[in-house]
Amino acid sequence: MSAVGTRTLRIGTRGSELATTQAGTVRDALISAGHDAELVIIKTKGDQSMESVEKIGVGVFTAELREALADGRVDVAVHSYKDLPTARDERFTIAAIPPREDPRDALVARDGLVLGELPAGSKVGTSAPRRTSQLRALGLGLDIQPLRGNLQRRLGKVESGELDAVVLARAGLARIGRLDLITESLEPVQMLPAPAQGALAVECLSVDTALVAILSELDDPNSRAAVTAERALLAELEAGCTAPVGAIAEVVESLDDDGRIFDELSVRGCAAAIDGSDVIRTGAVGSPENAEELGRSVARELLELGAGELMNVTEAGDADV
Predict the structure, then answer these.
(1) What are the backbone angles phi and psi of residue 243, rounded to the nearest 5°?
(2) What distance lies between CA 268 and its chain's CA centroid?
(3) CATH superfamily of 9-98+199-219
(4) Which of 21, 71, 192, 247 lies most in the core, judged by the most C-beta atoms within 10 Å?
(5) Residue 318 predicted with pLDDT over 50
(6) Which residues contact 19 (CB under 8 A, 6 or more apart)?
(7) Could you tell me which CATH number the domain at 226-311 has?
(8) Porphobilinogen deaminase C-terminal domain spans which residues (predicted)?
(9) Residues β-bridged to residue 96
């Protein structure tokens, strides 16, 4: 049975400030389009555990939302796209990827410092092996500390002086209206973001074609092309959201030989050793219509350059980086 019609669309979301704010943008867009909609809070394993994501597993922020879709408790689920497993689940369709926020990582540091101004030994918190590896590869001598919890908890570590800085997704700070806290937005040449960072996935049951059609009105083609390429890169590397892999894709305007403007998709990716000993980077440019194959081709080049071996580098005695 379709969820569309006179019914109020129930939008499943995690209960954090960031998650409800993200889902709220989808709710408001649906209401503006003439559809009644409301948020339904779903507790997830990721919200209830303070263990690292590597320990509690890929999909900890999304599995319960998907099960709520499957058993009819909600009609729509709104995910941070980077949290979804790369393996496709045929029960569900990503009906929309709304316009993406800036995908870069951001530094929030004491005293307004930028990354290059942090003294050697400064304690920098991050939850991601991807960030850990790339920060170490910069050779700044930073003391990287594991970090979990919601945005406010992470930010509080700097405010309290427990940490000198934290690295977070810029998009999250944008969505809760705290861009003022950022002391430096990290350019991709310093740190490539997580695949699909800053993007939302608006998901529903594949069989509900009427709802798919309604949600698809929220889709942004350029965001979809970029995210498709980045996720394909991750899938081709057979890596999950906790792997030390970064990627960024963007649709850019180019000129042909006759001076006519056309769109191209630029894709950059990296794989790193968790100890920061090496980072492999490569990229490619192609048609947005070939986003998935373009992402996979960048991944294959990374593998040819030794990414597989590099991602398996570990730190002796440190299982929770």
Answers:
(1) -80, 155
(2) 15
(3) Periplasmic binding protein-like II (3.40.190.10)
(4) 247
(5) no
(6) 13, 78, 80
(7) 3.30.160.40
(8) 226-303
(9) 202
CATH entry 3.40.190.10 includes domain 105-185:
yes
Using DSSP, state whether 267 is helix, strand or coil: strand
> 269, 203, 227: which is closest to 61 by C-alpha?
203
What are the DSSP calls for 58-73, one per residue?
A: TTTTTHHHHHHHHTTS
Question: Which part of the chain has CATH 3.30.160.40?
Answer: 226-311
pLDDT of residue 52: 45
Please provide the average confidence, as pLDDT, over all residues in the chain: 91
The angle formed by the CA atoms of residues 189, 190 and 194, to the nearest 5 degrees, is 90
| Phi, psi of 40, deg, nearest 5 | -125, 120
CA–CA distances in Å: residue 157 to residues 71, 131, 252: 39, 18, 38
Per-residue model confidence (pLDDT) at position 314? 61
**Size of the chain in residues:** 321
Do 153 and 97 touch, CB atoms closer than 8 A? no
State how far the Cα of 276 lies from the Cα of 131, in Å rounded to an integer: 10
13's tokens: 């979301």
Which tokens go with 244? 């030390």
CB 272 within 8 Å of CB 280: yes
Q: How is residue 182 written in tokens?
A: 């950022």
Catalytic-role residue among 36, 71, 83, 275: 83
Burial environment of residue 160 by CB neighbours within 10 A (0 to 12, 13 to 18, 19 or more):
exposed
